Hints:
By secondary structure, the protein is an alpha/beta fold. The chain has helices at 8-15, 24-37, 54-62, 72-80, 97-106, 116-129, 163-167, 172-175, 195-216, 242-259, 271-274, 410-414; strands at residues 2-3, 6-7, 19-23, 42-47, 66-69, 88-90, 110-113, 133-140, 150-151, 161-162, 179-185, 189-190, 222-224, 264-269, 278-290, 293-298, 321-325, 338-343, 352-359, 367-370, 392-397, 400-405.
Amino acid sequence: MKIQGIEFEELAEQFGTPLYVYDGDLLTDTITGLRRALHPAIEVFYSLKANPNISVFNTLRLGGARAEVSSLVELRTVLMAGTAPSDIVFLGPGKSERELVACLETGVYAIVVESFDELDDIERLAQERGVRQHVVLRINPTCAISGSRLTMGGKPRQFGIDEAQVLAAGDLSAKYRYAEVGGIQVYMGTRILDAEVVGKNTRYILDLAERVAEATGMPLDTVDIGGGLGVAYFEGEDDLDAVDVATEINPLLDKFHSAHPDTRLIMESGRFLTGRAGVYVIGVRYVKESMGERFAIADGGTHHHMAAVGIGSFVKRNFPAVLLSRRAEEATDLGESQPWNVTGPLCTPNDSILKNAQLPALLPGDLVGIQRSGAYGPSASPGLFLSHGFPAEVLVSGGQAHLVRSRDEPEDLLRHQHLHQPSTSTNQSIPTYQGSES
C-alpha cells in the first residue's frame, strides 16, 4: 500500500516504527471541502485537542482554518504557525491564571468562559493590566438532542454555565467592564454522524443565543455553534458528508446572519478534519497462538493509540486495519484472512489494539496500519507507560514525506528526571530476616 505514491515500507525504513503518518493532501481537501460547503458567514476553527501537531495544524490553517486552543502550549503552537490573535479562541473548564494572562497579553479574539468565578478572574486580571478582553459564555444547555456518540449537554457537567443560570444572571454588561461579555458557545455532543442532528443542534443554539442576549442585555458579537462532526470508525457507520451538513444548517445560518449581520459565527471541528488523514503504522515483532487464538505482538499499541481501545465503548470494536507491507522474505502468499489479536509491548492485557480482526496471515516484520487515526492519537494516550515515549510523526504532502515530530529517545525522557541521592547520615540499615524457630 502507498500514500501519495510512497510505499509505507519505505516510510518505515526511513523513520522507523511505530509511526504516525498523515496525508497532508487529504487534510487540505477536507478543510477546503467543508468551508466550500458551509455558509460563507461561518468560520471553521480547528480544535487542536484532536491533533496538536504544528504541521498538521499549519496545513489546515493554510486551508482557511482558524484556531481553537485549550492550553498554553496549544496557544503557543498556533502563534508559532502564524495565526493572528484575532483568529484564536481559548476554552477549557479549568484554565490557570497563567493561561488567562497569556490570553490577555496575546490579545486572543475570545476566552470561552466556563463559570462565573472564571469570569470574575478575567475581570480582575484585565483590570490590573488595563485591557479589555472579549469573553464568550459557554452554556450547558437544558436539553440534549440525541444522535451524538458522547452527549455534552442536558445533564450536570463541569463544562459551561447552566442555561437557567445564564438566563437569570441579569445585566452582565453592567457588572463587567473589562471582561466584555458578548456571545455564547454551546457544544452539544461529539462524533455526530447524522447531519439532521447537527441541524437540530444548530437551530437550538441560535435560538438560545437570541434568548440569552434578550435576558442579559449583552451584545451578540459571537455565536459559537460547537460542532462535533464525526468520522465513521466501525461497521454499520457511514461518514458524515459536509454537503449534507450544509443542507441542514445553511438556511438557519442565513436567517440568523440576516438578522444579526455583525455577529461572528463560529463552528469548531477537530476529529472531522484530521481523523481520516492519519495511519498508525506498527511493526509485528512476534506471532504466537494461545488457547486457539492467534496473536501478533507489535512494537506499538495503546500507549500511542488509546482511542483504538474502543472510544468509550464497553465492547471492544476495531478501527479499520490493513496489512500495509509484507516485509518478511518468506511466505509472500497472503492466503485467506484470519482472526488476529494485535497487541503492543505493554505489560498489561489491556494493550490490545485489535481483537479478532480479519487480517491475512501475519509474520514477524510485517507492517500493520490502523487507519483513520489522525485524531486523538498520541495526545490522548498514555505514552509514558513503561517509559516508551511517543512515536515519530510524518506528514506526506505533495508526494514528499516530512518528519514533523521526532521520536522520543531514552535521553529525551530521562532529561526531565532529577536523581535525588539521600545523604549517608539519613540511611537506615535494613534488618536481615532471621526466620522463625520451630
